[in-house]
User: Fold DEP domain-containing protein from Heligmosomoides polygyrus.
Amino acid sequence: MQPSLQIPQYVFRVNANSEEKLVHPNHMVYQKMESLVNHMLDAETGVPIKTVKSFLSKVPSVFTGQDLIAWIMKSLDMSDLSDALHLAHLIASHGYLFQIDDHVLTVKNDGTFYRFQTPYFWPSNCWEPENTDYAVYLCKRTMQNKAHLELEDFEAENLAKLQKMFSRKWEFVFMQAEAQYKVDKKRDRLERQILDSQERAFWDVHRPVPGCVNTTEVRAV
Assistant:
């Protein structure tokens, strides 16, 4: 699912080359992060991305935490491991990369697999997804008969709250979820696997696990 692109009140507009452009208050931070992530994505000099094959399955487009940290330390000439980990955590917490089987957006310096987020979901696009978008996403997840897509406890609780909140329009939510589910089913299996994980990571940023920091919040000055 691609959530509807809303324009938050804290987003302002600039006129660049006679074209109006939306700008987030954190745009300078995002620019620096995205410049670094684009270097990470370079096919020749970036973080080594691979498809991991096992006896019965393939895990496409992943890299390890070790490879990421090693790349950061070498490319940015860092000697302190803790500094490299801190930078990796910062990039992950803003949703530019994520662990493929965990909702917590952190990075470990080990063999854990990570995946880069699609630029479509980068925070510089000024995402402000609504609760209806989240409800459709969670509802769609309940239709997918896959163990790795089962709702976590906090997601099931959120879904129950949203069902009460949108009780009068739940049929519409369900129909939206069902339509998206049917579209997803037609995708190639590996493509669907990547898109499912990227969508999940998007919501982990905008509706984080209880106790985790919401990096999308903008504090009033």
Notes: Confidence is low (pLDDT under 50) at residues 4-14. The radius of gyration is 18 Å.
